[in-house]
Amino acid sequence: MKDKSNSSSAVNHFCADELRELAEKIKQWGRELGFQQVGITDTQPGEHTEHLRRWLDKDLHGEMDYMADREALRADPTALHENTLRVISLRMDYLPPNVETVKLLDHPKTAYLSRYALGRDYHKLIRKRIKKLADTIIEHTGERSQRPFVDSAPVLERAFAEKAGLGWIGKNTMLINSSMGSWFFLGELFTDLPLPIDPPQTTKHCGSCTACLDICPTNAFNGPFELDARKCISYLTIELKGSIPEPLRGLIGNRVFGCDDCQLICPWNKFAKPTDEKDFSPRHGLDHASMVDLFLWTEEEFEEKTQASPIRRIGYQRWLRNLAVGIGNGENSPHAINALKSKLKQSPLVDEHIQWALEQLAINR
Length: 365
Hints:
Low-confidence stretches: 1-11
Oligomer: single chain
CATH topology of the largest domain: NADH Oxidase
Shape: elongated
Strand order of the largest sheet: 1-2-7-4
Strand content: 5-15%
Helix content: 40-55%
CATH architecture of the largest domain: 3-Layer(aba) Sandwich
């Protein structure tokens, strides 16, 4: 397709056949950039905006005030990026190969970190790929009004992915693909091109299965499709800035950064395939690291070993907070007790969780 103009108004000169051809090329370019699936939809989130409003009204978002503060932008992509006509939704698998995921939950001395956090931070990698896609579109169509997004802006990404045919939002609120499960990241490219839209996913294939709801360690689901973030281990270990509620600490087990239980149990994930993306491979042995060894990291070691990692965002104090809880849920040993005591007087937040852990280990002696 030749360049029509340097103005986004040139879109009016594209005929329907050219737009269909361009849509197929965009999907091909996306696959060449490492995305497993690309879909196109309009800018209307539909029923998902009302679902979000009900969820916020129940205060199920906890301390995530940004969810409420930027609600209007989630409901209207054109308010987030002017001239947007289509949302290009992209899926990239992240499941690392050769990781004994389930078995780690049976080893109380081993730290469990959510599978998405074992490698490099996905935000920069995926944003860079989507930017390359946007640049390729510009090369073929002329100057465009486009903007890439990767989980760092108020976008209802699962809603748009469902509308673009990439899967359905399951009872665990994750997007599930019938061929690839749910171990993938999502990203979006807002564009002013009036591309043909793909058929939406209109059927949810969860059936009567409630495995994800039943297995949740903290009983964070109020029912199908409704998660109480305030009980979710991912929220407690990543989003929550203060103390982890004491009644929930013992339920967290050895999960020190996020939780994958509702994905691990999902029958559709038997179809998930390991990623070939090297940046998502585990770093610093985080797929089988000792809880105490991680707890004994100095702040300098934490900064060094979490560079370009999603773990960096919680900071050293919350890292110690989470690990203290995990150690407290583990086996009593002189090594564990000495490690906990060595980090006392770090901060009131850390001290509180260390004291709790020491009490728990004393009970389990």
